[in-house]
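Protocol step 6 of 9: fold each sequence in the batch and record its structure tokens directly after the sequence line. For illustration, a two-sequence batch is reproduced in full.

Sequence one:
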Amino acid sequence: MIDTIAVSGEAAEVALGEAQAVLAMVQDDERRGRLAELVAAVGEGELAEDDAEALAELLELGLQTGRIRAQYGPGGEQAALRLFRKLPRGQELSESAREVSGALASLVGKPLTGAGIEATGPGTFLVSLSTDGVELSVRLDRNGVRLTSVGL
């Protein structure tokens, strides 16, 4: 459970614009109701957990497709990124990146004896690195970065 997340300034403008744009296109009454709640929450400047999840989905899609940068420029994109990192989904991605970075730090100063990248599916890659005594495999996909195996 999260506390409320404050949304203001340019990040609020981008979030509100994206939520309103999707709301205008959605036909399903349930989704329309959910998006209307999100628009209201952003307008009030505070997001509860459900609102944060819904906004994370919108921002993630807008950032991945380049829509946010195209609509709001580089400043809007940066504001959306800062807001996304405050949301639980963004925090999860940041935490997984820190965990993988910690594992990769075990390779610092050791001679690299092997490296490879394998495409394991659409938008999914496996990066393998090995040194004398340590092998790491890291999965990269739309869900983030994860350490998939460590061999000693």
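Sequence two, same batch, same settings:
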Amino acid sequence: MWVVVEDSSAPSGHRVLAQTDADPTGYRFPVCVLDSITAKDYYVVRANALENNVVLYKVQNGKRTDLPLKGEGRTYGKKIAVPSGAWSTLGVNVKGNVFEVLLNGAKLYEVEDPTFPGAGKVGLWTKADSVIRFDDLRIVTH
């Protein structure tokens, strides 16, 4: 369930968007879509504290596929410590079909993928029993 809750630890203030359902179903992906924004490209980036990695996927015809890193190939994203129980910043800069993925301000890698050239929506995504809070979602278009 997606709800807005009070959280005094939030970096940008005290209200955050939270996914609070801890249903343990393994292949369950709660999504919250922001209808008021249309942005080019539809992809999913996620940071996983259990696996210590950050992965960029495309979802095409209902199938999720990790994307190969420029200069490194298909590595299932990048292995990196992802803090659990702490605030982190996950970012994606998109220019045409090139995606730059960042964690806590540090560039992790780039991906190039031309699969979705049209406009799409922006949303937030979690997996299975993850209880997550999102704060300060920023979308900048030029």
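Proceed to step 7 once all outputs are recorded. Observation for sequence two: The CA atoms of residues 70 and 111 lie 5 Å apart.
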